[in-house]
């Protein structure tokens, strides 16, 4: 499945040749080669690493998952780690992409096949005229695709936050717990995005700062564009965190409000029920109270119950306790 | 509806000519042209973009809503995105305004017709003598109008926050939930302003920093003035967030206070009601207690009920539980 | 009421002359003039502004209240806005003071007559020998007075915070709501101070940074001294915010504690009252239980009530629930 | 009680001479003099200030308590304010120490005699060979002693925080309120330390940055050492604030937990008590229910009470509500 | 137990020789020596310190535990303090490691034997070819091992946080208190890691910044690698704090939800129980109500009880209160 490409003077010359043919092309400075490795073993990487003179530390990082977006500069090449995102059935997955870039070669190492490298190839072909910018252009399209992926996730999270906001002032308690669970989960997703997606900003910013050392001047606006997107990712996720915080505080306030409401209802009904209890208690005494054992006692007792209950009910209703 | 203007040597020479006449004026360096496009299609922009040599990335950003105030510098022009605000029936809308500024042309692209470009034109005409500063002056009046719009929204939010503060220590519970909902909504508005209005500060600050590269020295104080306003927007919205936080914390404290209050009332009334219940329970026993079946039992029972109830009521009232 | 002064070579030469005499003195570089305007109209400022060559933007800011401490530098003069504070009957007012300073003139524009300019004059006269430093000295005394005013307000707020701390662990619930209201109000005052008093720091710091461009070297320590005071204002108000936060969290904890306490009391008393209710209920049954209709029933019932109640009461007391 | 010392060529030559002898020694550049003043009046400082040429603003600051650690640089001398700490009976006191340092003189002004200057003298004598570094060395030992004092206070606060943590999950409610009060008090102490002890860091850092302008190169590591201690003070107090926050949040959670727990207990017992009440209520009716007035009624009623009570008790115990 | 090593030209030449033989090797610039001291006394360090010319302040810091990761630069050597971590039975221990590094010597001082220095030796031997980089290489392996230790602890904390998240929405209340205790404890661990493990970042970063002054260029990527790990430690622990905060807020929400839930249940059952109480109270009156003393009274009473109870039960169930 590993993919390869060879560009010469900005034109795609060969594609899909075996990685073992690396040596033929690497020495040729007029050519730009690309190799893609999907979850490679140490042995897989050994050959390319030797041909391209990759630093053993970078190679080791590419094999072992290491969970931090970064840009390392070695004498003969750059080493980049970024994280692509994938939302599958509400689970947020991060796929580590390690990249080696030399003057005329780009090596991409994907942690798993779940990252859709074909989409990157489609982007390359859609702007084939830009292939003249060489490896930095290939890298640009890859980073652009990854950052677009972060956006898609943020869009889903944003929609979720809006749903939570809509549910917030509903009075159904089943929904309440659901809202809490979703709020918790949304916050968690944002924490993870902040750790693995947002720092892509520093990686791109740092590529941009090197400017013409590593890329043609005509590419700068394109990298600036990706950089803008990473800034937006950062601002957007910060903004969403703030909204989630807003939801949480509103939840706490809501619960306090509801508790007070319930307490008032309990109090009201307890008072209303206390009326007949008190009166029948009185008429249940074994002492000759007025009306003891006489029909008039029954009528008075019943009248007191009915009237007392109604009066209390109205009083509470007036104070909005019921 | 698209508006156009042509200034020559600081004097308005033509206005309302078709956008297709662009080419005639663009080459003329003694003239300053302005074009306004309202939610244009790709095709609409294509011509101008070609005439003025606008970068395709900037053109694409102008067409697609992209939600981030920014200033991009291209070789031959600046590209600015800012957001105008509109409060309609308590809904806060943002209208994206994209701006291209070359040496002698200003192109404004409005996302929707809800942004009142006529007001900007009125401002231009009110200070017609400043038209001698060219495109940067036109830009200034536009930014000034947009920032004034942010102020108007903040003023409304500020009034709202004061209302919330006034309602806070009212004891009416219906208002309580209303206050919570409004607090939530106000916080949300502030989060959005922080994301789309406050960063206008960086855009203006960045224009100011370039100084004489892009504008006449005499314009500097005017840009400084807009910059001051954007700083005030930032400080004001920060201050409002703080006040909303203050309101929220006070709400939580208030609810705690009220809950305690209600609990004390419940306890007091339950205790008061327990007195007759206990006594009539005693006199309801089928055992020959003192006064069983005798009038004296009735009088003692009734006396105990009345005295006990009054004593308890007074005791609770003294402790402020009722 | 508008005040004026003319210093020549560090000596007060004239005072109280009409503002219309401005032109006579302004051209004289050996003299330093001061004009004070209290809530002037546009017309009032027009003359001075023309004589001193003030920038129209600055003049406009001086007339319209604009709510932001700042220092603007124009070609021929500095424009400063600061806010004096006044606590009247627990209401915190801010009075905008706009200042124009040229090489040899100082113009102060007060928003209202509530700012006591006479106290500033007293300070000038108390250190008459420093008048040799010209306009920057006059400005120094004014800023010093304003910052001292901020201190007085902070001292009052500090005392208030200490009162709140003392009241915090009192058990009287009426005080509780009072404490909440005061806490809310104190926080609000601090937010406003932070917005309008604390940024005086940047204004003074910025004057200090220009150093010998605008003031004699001998004045530097005096400006440094005011700057130290503004730093202290900032630190103090930050510290007070922290203490208010501490009070608020303690309040929440206290309320939680009290609610638990009340719940325990309710539970205890409910349990104690349940004892006689249960027993008299038993003895009220119309079935021949042991002692039914016999004196022994009464004695047993009464004994059970007394003993049960006492035992429960002691048990709860031991667990500190009562 | 005021102490004085005269070092010549790093050797202590005289000590305890009257402050009035200042003039003899100050002019002698081969000597280093030290004067200590404890809560001096303006007059006390006047002479020294004249001899050493101290700036009147610094002298004024030394007399009036001013609550801010700082380092001011004047032409001929440095002026330093720092705060020594003292914990007496759980009260945290701060003692202001003002210091003037010229090339060959050190003047220390203590706000009160509670700061133990003798301990500083002991430190000087313990490292007598370092006296060759002159006034900066004397200053170093003083600052070192003051920062050590901050450490002692932090150690006590740290112990207190650990006690609070240990008490946190105890179930005794009296302790609960105690814990809250202590938490509040600890937070308050940390706020004050942050304001008056932590900024000593900036004072020492600023001395260090001037380096060889004011001190011999051999002293640098010693100042670096004090600086490290001030950094540790800052980090430690920050860490303690964090732990206090942790305790507070745990308290809130704990109270919520306990409240739920109490509510469950109340509910359970109320339900259990409701069983006999309901049954005896039934058997108390004046209608010929099965067993009315017959021994079988008594047995059935009693059996229902006992069985019902036991069943409910077990059910609640199983659900952990009791 | 103290270990020693002597490398010459990158080759291990001697090992385990007595520390007293130091002098023989220290003068030899072609050799690199390593000494390890485990909780040494002042006397133990005196000799080495004299031979290598270590600064007395650094030596003192190495002996006294001082609780702050730092890098001090002295004329002839670097002094480093870092903290190794150890999790034993859920207790987080920190072991202070002090390091002196001169051009050709490395001295490690361990606070306790619990830090496994043998593992560091194993690392040295595993990459024996790198010994040619001298003392900085030895230091690298040591720091790498310590930072790996921090990772292991963070991994355990991370697992713990996931467990807490899983338990969060369980309804078992025993677990609730357990979750609270664990949350508290996890937060505490993170605070301590932040204070003693995270600042290792500054130490390594500062070594890296000195670059070729202290290490061979070939070592830079290796130090960069450790630095990346320390950055990850910082980001990871920050991220975990955030997740713990998320858990805490969810707990508060959950408790509020459960309290409301319990209150509804209590209310419902109290209402249901009130039905028979009220009815049997009525039929227990000693007045001739319809059915008094007649079988029909019994049937009506019983019917009312059964129907009333069922109706209420269904009503509450429909509203989700049961």
TrEMBL record, chains A, B, C, D, E:
Report the principal subcellular site.
Answer: membrane
Task: Could you list this entry's UniProt keywords, alphabetically sorted.
Answer: Cell membrane, Membrane, Transmembrane, Transmembrane helix, Transport
List residues traversing the bilayer.
Answer: 266-284, 296-316
Which Pfam families does the annotation name? CorA
State the InterPro entries in the record: CorA_cytoplasmic_dom, CorA_TM1_TM2, MgTranspt_CorA/ZnTranspt_ZntB
Which membrane topology term applies here? Multi-pass membrane protein
Record localization: Cell membrane
* Family that this chain belongs to: Belongs to the CorA metal ion transporter (MIT) (TC 1.A.35) family.
Q: By what name is this protein known?
A: Magnesium transporter CorA family protein
Which species is listed as the source?
Streptosporangium amethystogenes subsp. fukuiense
Organism placement in taxonomy: Bacteria, Bacillati, Actinomycetota, Actinomycetes, Streptosporangiales
């Amino acid at each position: 499945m590993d993919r390869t490409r060879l560009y010469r003077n900005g034109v795609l010359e060969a594609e899909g040749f075996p990685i073992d043919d690396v040596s033929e092309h690497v020495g040729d400075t007029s050519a730009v080669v690309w190799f893609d490795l999907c979850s490679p073993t140490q042995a897989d990487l050994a050959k390319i690493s030797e041909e391209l003179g990759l630093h053993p530390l970078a190679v080791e990082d590419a094999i072992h998952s290491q969970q931090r977006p970064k840009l390392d500069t070695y004498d003969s090449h750059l080493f980049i780690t970024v994280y692509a995102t994938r939302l599958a059935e509400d689970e947020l997955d991060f796929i580590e992409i390690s990249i080696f870039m030399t003057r005329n070669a780009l090596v991409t190492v994907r942690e798993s096949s779940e990252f859709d490298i074909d989409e990157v190839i489609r982007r390359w072909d859609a702007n084939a005229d830009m292939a003249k910018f060489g490896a930095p252009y290939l890298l640009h399209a890859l980073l652009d695709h990854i950052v677009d992926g972060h956006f898609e996730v943020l869009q889903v999270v944003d929609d979720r936050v809006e749903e939570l906001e809509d549910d917030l002032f509903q009075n159904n308690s089943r929904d309440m717990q659901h809202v809490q669970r979703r709020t918790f989960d949304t916050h968690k997703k944002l924490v993870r995005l902040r750790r693995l997606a947002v720092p892509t900003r520093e990686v791109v910013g740092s590529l941009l700062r090197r400017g013409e050392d590593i890329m043609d001047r005509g590419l700068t606006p394109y990298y600036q564009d990706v950089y803008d997107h990473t800034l937006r990712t950062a601002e957007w996720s910060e903004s969403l965190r703030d909204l989630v915080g807003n939801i949480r505080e509103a939840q706490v306030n809501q619960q306090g409000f509801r508790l007070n409401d319930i307490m008032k209802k309990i109090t009201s009904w307890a008072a209303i029920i206390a009326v007949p209890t008190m009166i029948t208690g009185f008429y249940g005494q074994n002492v000759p109270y007025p009306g003891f054992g006489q029909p008039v006692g029954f009528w008075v007792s019943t009248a007191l119950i009915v009237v007392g209950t109604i009066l209390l009910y109205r009083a509470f209703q007036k104070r909005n306790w019921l």
